[in-house]
Amino acid sequence: MDKLITELLISIIESADNAINYAFDNLIDLCFNAEDYLTQILGLEVINFDSLKSIILSFAISLIVLKFLKKGVEMYISWTDGSADTPIHIYILYFVRSIIVILVFPLLYDIFVSVGKDFSNDIMQALNITNQEALTQNLATISGVGIFTALLGVIDLIMLILLYVQALMRGVEMFVLKISFPIFCTGLLDSNKGIFAPYIKKFFQSVFTIILQIALAKIVVLLISTGQLIMSVATLLVALRTPKFLQEFVLLSGNGSSGISNIIHTTSKIIELKGQISKK
Question: Number of structural domains, the chain?
Answer without folding.
Answer: 1
